[in-house]
Protein backbone atom coordinates (compact mmCIF):
# COMPACT_ATOMS: atom_id res chain seq x y z
CA UNK A 1 0.00 0.00 0.00
CA UNK A 2 2.75 2.47 0.92
CA UNK A 3 4.81 1.57 -2.16
CA UNK A 4 1.86 2.42 -4.42
CA UNK A 5 1.33 5.75 -2.62
CA UNK A 6 5.01 6.67 -2.97
CA UNK A 7 4.99 6.15 -6.72
CA UNK A 8 1.64 7.91 -7.23
CA UNK A 9 2.37 10.98 -5.07
CA UNK A 10 5.75 11.98 -6.43
CA UNK A 11 4.53 14.19 -9.28
CA UNK A 12 2.29 16.14 -6.89
CA UNK A 13 5.16 16.43 -4.45
CA UNK A 14 7.51 17.88 -7.08
CA UNK A 15 4.84 20.39 -8.08
CA UNK A 16 4.69 21.63 -4.49
CA UNK A 17 8.42 22.43 -4.46
CA UNK A 18 10.31 25.36 -5.89
CA UNK A 19 13.83 23.96 -6.02
CA UNK A 20 13.75 22.64 -9.58
CA UNK A 21 17.48 22.00 -9.78
CA UNK A 22 16.92 18.78 -7.83
CA UNK A 23 13.97 17.48 -9.85
CA UNK A 24 15.98 15.14 -12.06
CA UNK A 25 17.95 13.80 -9.08
CA UNK A 26 14.71 13.18 -7.25
CA UNK A 27 13.22 11.30 -10.21
CA UNK A 28 16.36 9.17 -10.53
CA UNK A 29 16.27 8.38 -6.79
CA UNK A 30 12.62 7.34 -7.08
CA UNK A 31 13.48 5.03 -9.98
CA UNK A 32 16.23 3.42 -7.90
CA UNK A 33 13.81 3.01 -5.02
CA UNK A 34 11.17 1.49 -7.32
CA UNK A 35 13.66 -1.06 -8.65
CA UNK A 36 14.64 -2.04 -5.09
CA UNK A 37 11.30 -1.92 -3.32
CA UNK A 38 11.14 -2.06 0.44
CA UNK A 39 13.58 -4.51 2.02
CA UNK A 40 12.13 -7.75 3.37
CA UNK A 41 13.47 -10.40 5.71
CA UNK A 42 14.94 -12.11 2.65
CA UNK A 43 17.44 -9.25 2.48
CA UNK A 44 20.49 -9.93 4.66
CA UNK A 45 20.47 -6.42 6.16
CA UNK A 46 16.84 -6.85 7.27
CA UNK A 47 17.03 -10.53 8.14
CA UNK A 48 15.75 -9.95 11.68
CA UNK A 49 13.50 -6.94 11.09
CA UNK A 50 10.13 -7.13 9.35
CA UNK A 51 8.77 -3.87 7.91
CA UNK A 52 5.34 -5.25 6.98
CA UNK A 53 3.68 -3.37 9.83
CA UNK A 54 4.96 -0.10 8.34
CA UNK A 55 4.56 -0.73 4.63
CA UNK A 56 1.00 -2.08 4.73
CA UNK A 57 -0.40 1.19 6.12
CA UNK A 58 -1.52 4.24 4.14
CA UNK A 59 0.01 7.66 4.91
CA UNK A 60 -0.55 11.32 4.18
CA UNK A 61 2.46 12.82 2.36
CA UNK A 62 1.37 16.44 2.90
CA UNK A 63 0.99 17.04 6.68
CA UNK A 64 -1.32 19.79 7.87
CA UNK A 65 0.69 22.75 9.16
CA UNK A 66 -1.84 23.90 11.77
CA UNK A 67 -0.94 23.04 15.36
CA UNK A 68 -1.81 24.07 18.92
CA UNK A 69 1.38 23.08 20.74
CA UNK A 70 1.49 24.80 24.13
CA UNK A 71 4.50 26.07 26.05
CA UNK A 72 3.76 23.51 28.76
CA UNK A 73 3.94 20.67 26.24
CA UNK A 74 7.25 21.94 24.92
CA UNK A 75 8.64 22.44 28.42
CA UNK A 76 8.04 18.75 29.13
CA UNK A 77 10.23 17.84 26.17
CA UNK A 78 13.14 20.00 27.27
CA UNK A 79 15.99 18.73 29.39
CA UNK A 80 16.06 21.73 31.69
CA UNK A 81 18.46 23.29 29.23
CA UNK A 82 17.85 27.00 29.81
CA UNK A 83 21.33 27.71 28.51
CA UNK A 84 20.85 25.66 25.33
CA UNK A 85 19.66 26.74 21.93
CA UNK A 86 16.76 24.83 20.45
CA UNK A 87 15.11 24.50 17.06
CA UNK A 88 11.51 23.38 16.81
CA UNK A 89 9.88 21.85 13.75
CA UNK A 90 6.13 21.22 13.96
CA UNK A 91 4.49 19.20 11.20
CA UNK A 92 7.62 19.66 9.14
CA UNK A 93 7.77 23.45 9.38
CA UNK A 94 10.39 25.42 11.32
CA UNK A 95 8.71 27.63 13.95
CA UNK A 96 10.94 30.48 15.07
CA UNK A 97 8.51 31.51 17.81
CA UNK A 98 8.96 28.08 19.42
CA UNK A 99 12.74 28.14 18.95
CA UNK A 100 15.63 29.87 20.65
CA UNK A 101 18.59 30.48 18.36
CA UNK A 102 21.40 32.65 19.70
CA UNK A 103 24.26 31.10 17.74
CA UNK A 104 26.34 33.58 15.77
CA UNK A 105 28.89 33.39 12.96
CA UNK A 106 27.28 30.26 11.51
CA UNK A 107 25.00 29.51 8.60
CA UNK A 108 21.72 28.02 9.80
CA UNK A 109 18.64 27.53 7.63
CA UNK A 110 15.71 25.19 7.41
CA UNK A 111 16.44 22.56 4.78
CA UNK A 112 13.59 23.69 2.53
CA UNK A 113 14.70 27.33 2.68
CA UNK A 114 18.32 26.41 2.04
CA UNK A 115 17.32 24.52 -1.10
CA UNK A 116 15.64 27.68 -2.43
CA UNK A 117 18.46 30.03 -1.47
CA UNK A 118 20.73 30.77 -4.43
CA UNK A 119 23.61 31.63 -2.06
CA UNK A 120 23.72 28.02 -0.87
CA UNK A 121 23.36 26.32 -4.24
CA UNK A 122 27.12 25.66 -4.51
CA UNK A 123 27.23 24.24 -1.01
CA UNK A 124 24.41 21.83 -1.76
CA UNK A 125 25.97 20.73 -5.01
CA UNK A 126 29.23 20.06 -3.14
CA UNK A 127 27.81 18.18 -0.15
CA UNK A 128 24.21 17.06 -0.62
CA UNK A 129 23.85 13.30 -1.01
CA UNK A 130 27.59 12.76 -1.50
CA UNK A 131 28.00 10.31 1.39
CA UNK A 132 24.43 9.04 1.78
CA UNK A 133 24.34 5.66 0.10
CA UNK A 134 22.23 5.31 -3.05
CA UNK A 135 22.17 1.54 -2.48
CA UNK A 136 19.59 1.81 0.28
CA UNK A 137 15.87 1.92 -0.47
CA UNK A 138 15.22 4.36 2.36
CA UNK A 139 17.97 6.84 1.45
CA UNK A 140 16.74 6.88 -2.15
CA UNK A 141 13.19 7.39 -0.91
CA UNK A 142 14.38 10.26 1.25
CA UNK A 143 16.21 11.90 -1.64
CA UNK A 144 13.05 11.67 -3.74
CA UNK A 145 10.82 13.22 -1.07
CA UNK A 146 13.05 15.19 1.36
CA UNK A 147 11.76 18.61 2.35
CA UNK A 148 11.93 18.98 6.14
CA UNK A 149 14.99 19.37 8.34
CA UNK A 150 17.89 21.79 8.74
CA UNK A 151 21.20 22.91 7.24
CA UNK A 152 24.01 24.06 9.56
CA UNK A 153 27.50 25.13 8.56
CA UNK A 154 29.99 25.97 11.31
CA UNK A 155 32.87 28.01 9.86
CA UNK A 156 36.56 27.46 10.52
CA UNK A 157 37.63 27.69 14.21
CA UNK A 158 34.13 28.64 15.42
CA UNK A 159 33.24 26.88 18.67
CA UNK A 160 29.53 26.73 19.47
CA UNK A 161 29.51 26.61 23.25
CA UNK A 162 25.80 25.86 23.68
CA UNK A 163 24.36 22.51 22.64
CA UNK A 164 21.56 22.76 20.07
CA UNK A 165 18.44 20.66 20.68
CA UNK A 166 16.39 19.95 17.53
CA UNK A 167 12.76 18.92 18.07
CA UNK A 168 10.68 17.26 15.35
CA UNK A 169 7.03 17.34 16.44
CA UNK A 170 3.91 15.99 14.75
CA UNK A 171 0.49 17.13 15.95
CA UNK A 172 -3.11 17.52 14.71
CA UNK A 173 -2.72 14.96 11.94
CA UNK A 174 -6.00 13.16 11.31
CA UNK A 175 -4.33 10.56 9.09
CA UNK A 176 -1.18 8.51 9.37
CA UNK A 177 1.63 10.84 8.29
CA UNK A 178 4.90 10.30 6.44
CA UNK A 179 7.88 12.64 7.01
CA UNK A 180 11.16 12.56 5.09
CA UNK A 181 13.51 14.71 7.14
CA UNK A 182 16.93 15.71 5.89
CA UNK A 183 19.79 17.24 7.90
CA UNK A 184 23.12 18.53 6.63
CA UNK A 185 25.86 19.45 9.12
CA UNK A 186 29.21 20.85 7.98
CA UNK A 187 31.85 21.45 10.68
CA UNK A 188 34.85 23.17 9.18
CA UNK A 189 38.47 22.99 10.33
CA UNK A 190 38.93 23.57 14.07
CA UNK A 191 35.20 24.09 14.71
CA UNK A 192 33.03 22.41 17.34
CA UNK A 193 29.29 21.73 17.75
CA UNK A 194 26.95 19.47 19.72
CA UNK A 195 23.46 18.50 18.48
CA UNK A 196 20.63 16.74 20.32
CA UNK A 197 17.84 15.33 18.13
CA UNK A 198 14.43 14.08 19.26
CA UNK A 199 11.14 13.16 17.54
CA UNK A 200 7.69 13.41 19.16
CA UNK A 201 4.27 12.31 17.93
CA UNK A 202 1.40 13.94 19.84
CA UNK A 203 -1.36 12.09 17.98
CA UNK A 204 -2.87 8.61 18.15
CA UNK A 205 -2.45 8.28 14.38
CA UNK A 206 0.74 6.68 13.12
CA UNK A 207 3.81 8.67 12.10
CA UNK A 208 6.53 7.25 9.87
CA UNK A 209 9.75 9.29 9.80
CA UNK A 210 12.43 8.44 7.26
CA UNK A 211 15.40 10.60 8.25
CA UNK A 212 18.77 11.08 6.54
CA UNK A 213 21.59 13.05 8.17
CA UNK A 214 24.94 13.83 6.56
CA UNK A 215 27.76 15.01 8.84
CA UNK A 216 31.04 16.40 7.48
CA UNK A 217 33.76 16.89 10.11
CA UNK A 218 36.94 18.59 8.89
CA UNK A 219 40.47 18.43 10.33
CA UNK A 220 40.84 19.23 14.04
CA UNK A 221 37.06 19.68 14.28
CA UNK A 222 34.64 18.02 16.71
CA UNK A 223 31.01 17.08 16.05
CA UNK A 224 28.76 15.32 18.57
CA UNK A 225 25.26 14.15 17.64
CA UNK A 226 23.00 12.72 20.36
CA UNK A 227 19.81 10.91 19.33
CA UNK A 228 17.17 10.77 22.05
CA UNK A 229 14.53 8.29 20.84
CA UNK A 230 11.61 8.22 23.26
CA UNK A 231 8.50 8.57 21.10
CA UNK A 232 5.07 6.97 21.60
CA UNK A 233 3.77 3.59 20.46
CA UNK A 234 2.32 4.93 17.20
CA UNK A 235 5.68 6.07 15.85
CA UNK A 236 8.04 4.46 13.38
CA UNK A 237 11.54 5.83 12.79
CA UNK A 238 14.02 4.85 10.08
CA UNK A 239 17.16 6.85 10.80
CA UNK A 240 20.09 6.96 8.38
CA UNK A 241 23.18 8.86 9.54
CA UNK A 242 26.40 9.21 7.54
CA UNK A 243 29.54 10.83 8.95
CA UNK A 244 32.66 11.61 6.92
CA UNK A 245 35.73 12.67 8.87
CA UNK A 246 38.95 14.33 7.75
CA UNK A 247 42.33 13.96 9.48
CA UNK A 248 42.66 14.69 13.22
CA UNK A 249 38.89 15.01 13.70
CA UNK A 250 36.55 13.58 16.32
CA UNK A 251 32.91 12.63 15.73
CA UNK A 252 30.50 11.02 18.18
CA UNK A 253 27.01 9.64 17.62
CA UNK A 254 25.16 8.53 20.76
CA UNK A 255 21.81 6.76 20.35
CA UNK A 256 19.43 6.35 23.29
CA UNK A 257 16.39 4.26 22.34
CA UNK A 258 13.55 4.05 24.84
CA UNK A 259 10.34 4.63 22.85
CA UNK A 260 8.76 4.13 19.46
CA UNK A 261 7.02 1.07 18.03
CA UNK A 262 9.75 0.28 15.52
CA UNK A 263 13.12 2.04 15.30
CA UNK A 264 15.85 1.26 12.80
CA UNK A 265 19.18 3.10 13.14
CA UNK A 266 21.63 2.90 10.22
CA UNK A 267 24.94 4.51 11.13
CA UNK A 268 27.83 4.81 8.69
CA UNK A 269 31.25 6.35 9.48
CA UNK A 270 33.72 7.04 6.68
CA UNK A 271 37.37 7.85 7.50
CA UNK A 272 39.01 10.19 5.01
CA UNK A 273 42.32 10.89 6.73
CA UNK A 274 44.67 9.76 9.48
CA UNK A 275 44.49 10.25 13.27
CA UNK A 276 40.67 10.14 13.30
CA UNK A 277 38.60 9.21 16.34
CA UNK A 278 35.02 7.91 16.03
CA UNK A 279 32.71 7.08 18.93
CA UNK A 280 29.36 5.26 18.77
CA UNK A 281 27.47 4.51 21.96
CA UNK A 282 23.96 3.22 22.42
CA UNK A 283 21.52 2.36 25.19
CA UNK A 284 18.30 0.52 24.36
CA UNK A 285 15.63 -0.19 26.97
CA UNK A 286 12.33 -1.43 25.52
CA UNK A 287 9.40 -3.68 26.43
CA UNK A 288 5.96 -4.77 25.19
CA UNK A 289 6.29 -5.56 21.46
CA UNK A 290 8.76 -2.77 20.56
CA UNK A 291 11.61 -3.35 18.12
CA UNK A 292 14.91 -1.44 17.97
CA UNK A 293 17.48 -2.35 15.33
CA UNK A 294 21.01 -0.86 15.33
CA UNK A 295 23.12 -1.31 12.19
CA UNK A 296 26.57 0.33 12.29
CA UNK A 297 29.51 0.44 9.90
CA UNK A 298 32.93 2.04 10.24
CA UNK A 299 35.19 2.31 7.19
CA UNK A 300 38.85 2.58 8.25
CA UNK A 301 40.47 3.81 5.04
CA UNK A 302 43.61 5.48 6.47
CA UNK A 303 46.26 4.54 9.07
CA UNK A 304 46.44 5.54 12.75
CA UNK A 305 42.71 5.87 13.36
CA UNK A 306 40.47 4.67 16.19
CA UNK A 307 36.81 3.71 16.45
CA UNK A 308 34.88 2.73 19.54
CA UNK A 309 31.43 1.12 19.60
CA UNK A 310 29.67 0.30 22.86
CA UNK A 311 25.97 -0.71 22.73
CA UNK A 312 23.95 -1.88 25.73
CA UNK A 313 20.46 -3.39 25.51
CA UNK A 314 17.82 -4.23 28.12
CA UNK A 315 14.76 -6.05 26.78
CA UNK A 316 11.49 -6.90 28.53
CA UNK A 317 8.05 -8.19 27.52
CA UNK A 318 7.99 -9.41 23.93
CA UNK A 319 10.43 -6.79 22.69
CA UNK A 320 13.01 -7.47 20.00
CA UNK A 321 16.48 -6.02 19.72
CA UNK A 322 18.92 -6.24 16.81
CA UNK A 323 22.57 -5.24 16.65
CA UNK A 324 24.70 -5.64 13.54
CA UNK A 325 28.01 -3.81 13.78
CA UNK A 326 30.60 -3.87 11.03
CA UNK A 327 34.20 -2.65 10.99
CA UNK A 328 36.06 -2.54 7.67
CA UNK A 329 39.85 -2.06 7.74
CA UNK A 330 41.50 -1.26 4.40
CA UNK A 331 44.91 -2.75 3.57
CA UNK A 332 46.57 0.67 3.96
CA UNK A 333 44.89 1.37 7.30
CA UNK A 334 47.79 0.15 9.46
CA UNK A 335 47.84 0.95 13.20
CA UNK A 336 44.03 0.90 13.31
CA UNK A 337 42.50 0.50 16.76
CA UNK A 338 38.87 -0.63 16.55
CA UNK A 339 36.72 -1.73 19.48
CA UNK A 340 33.18 -3.08 19.17
CA UNK A 341 31.05 -4.46 21.99
CA UNK A 342 27.35 -5.29 22.36
CA UNK A 343 26.02 -6.47 25.73
CA UNK A 344 22.40 -7.38 26.37
CA UNK A 345 20.14 -8.39 29.25
CA UNK A 346 16.86 -10.23 28.69
CA UNK A 347 14.34 -9.63 31.48
CA UNK A 348 11.59 -11.95 30.20
CA UNK A 349 11.24 -15.20 28.30
CA UNK A 350 9.48 -13.43 25.44
CA UNK A 351 12.26 -10.93 24.76
CA UNK A 352 14.65 -11.55 21.83
CA UNK A 353 18.02 -10.13 20.80
CA UNK A 354 19.81 -10.91 17.54
CA UNK A 355 23.40 -9.67 17.65
CA UNK A 356 26.11 -9.94 15.02
CA UNK A 357 29.35 -7.97 15.43
CA UNK A 358 31.62 -8.26 12.38
CA UNK A 359 35.20 -7.43 11.39
CA UNK A 360 36.67 -7.35 7.88
CA UNK A 361 40.40 -6.68 8.19
CA UNK A 362 42.81 -6.41 5.26
CA UNK A 363 45.73 -4.82 7.16
CA UNK A 364 48.16 -6.77 9.34
CA UNK A 365 49.31 -4.23 11.96
CA UNK A 366 46.04 -3.50 13.74
CA UNK A 367 44.39 -3.86 17.12
CA UNK A 368 40.76 -4.84 16.61
CA UNK A 369 38.33 -6.57 18.94
CA UNK A 370 34.65 -7.34 18.96
CA UNK A 371 32.24 -9.26 21.11
CA UNK A 372 28.70 -9.66 22.35
CA UNK A 373 26.95 -11.09 25.39
CA UNK A 374 23.34 -12.08 26.07
CA UNK A 375 22.12 -13.11 29.49
CA UNK A 376 20.13 -12.41 32.63
CA UNK A 377 21.03 -10.52 35.80
CA UNK A 378 23.74 -12.00 37.98
CA UNK A 379 22.04 -13.90 40.82
CA UNK A 380 25.02 -13.54 43.16
CA UNK A 381 24.99 -9.76 42.75
CA UNK A 382 21.24 -9.69 43.39
CA UNK A 383 21.68 -11.76 46.53
CA UNK A 384 24.47 -9.45 47.75
CA UNK A 385 22.25 -6.36 47.41
CA UNK A 386 19.14 -8.00 48.90
CA UNK A 387 21.18 -9.22 51.88
CA UNK A 388 21.75 -5.54 52.68
CA UNK A 389 18.06 -4.71 52.91
CA UNK A 390 17.47 -3.62 49.32
CA UNK A 391 14.24 -4.87 47.71
CA UNK A 392 14.45 -7.21 44.75
CA UNK A 393 13.03 -4.59 42.37
CA UNK A 394 15.46 -1.90 43.52
CA UNK A 395 18.37 -4.34 43.40
CA UNK A 396 17.51 -5.26 39.81
CA UNK A 397 17.23 -1.59 38.87
CA UNK A 398 20.59 -0.72 40.44
CA UNK A 399 22.33 -3.54 38.59
CA UNK A 400 20.70 -2.60 35.29
CA UNK A 401 21.60 1.05 35.75
CA UNK A 402 25.22 0.09 36.42
CA UNK A 403 25.13 -2.19 33.38
CA UNK A 404 24.00 0.64 31.06
CA UNK A 405 25.95 3.46 32.70
CA UNK A 406 29.29 3.10 30.91
CA UNK A 407 27.60 3.83 27.57
CA UNK A 408 26.93 7.34 28.93
CA UNK A 409 30.47 8.15 29.98
CA UNK A 410 31.38 10.33 27.03
CA UNK A 411 28.29 12.58 27.32
CA UNK A 412 29.62 15.93 28.46
CA UNK A 413 26.19 17.63 28.46
CA UNK A 414 25.06 17.30 32.08
CA UNK A 415 21.32 17.97 31.47
CA UNK A 416 21.31 15.28 28.79
CA UNK A 417 23.11 12.81 31.04
CA UNK A 418 20.60 13.54 33.81
CA UNK A 419 17.68 13.07 31.39
CA UNK A 420 19.02 9.69 30.26
CA UNK A 421 19.43 8.67 33.91
CA UNK A 422 15.83 9.64 34.67
CA UNK A 423 14.55 7.77 31.63
CA UNK A 424 16.50 4.73 32.77
CA UNK A 425 14.81 4.95 36.16
CA UNK A 426 11.37 5.40 34.59
CA UNK A 427 11.81 2.42 32.30
CA UNK A 428 13.05 0.34 35.24
CA UNK A 429 10.04 1.58 37.27
CA UNK A 430 12.02 2.49 40.35
CA UNK A 431 13.12 5.62 42.15
CA UNK A 432 16.87 6.06 42.13
CA UNK A 433 18.77 9.08 43.37
CA UNK A 434 21.47 10.04 40.84
Automatic annotation (TrEMBL):
InterPro entries: Fe-S_cluster_assembly_SufBD, SUF_FeS_clus_asmbl_SufBD_core, SUF_FeS_clus_asmbl_SufBD_sf, SUF_FeS_clus_asmbl_SufD, SufBD_N. SUPFAM superfamilies: Stabilizer of iron transporter SufD. Residues 8-166 form the SUF system FeS cluster assembly SufBD N-terminal domain. GO terms for biological process: iron-sulfur cluster assembly. It holds the Pfam family SUFBD_core. Residues 174-403 form the SUF system FeS cluster assembly SufBD core domain. Coiled coil: none annotated. Belongs to the iron-sulfur cluster assembly SufBD family. PANTHER family: PROTEIN ABCI7, CHLOROPLASTIC. This is Fe-S cluster assembly protein SufD. It comes from Chryseobacterium taichungense.
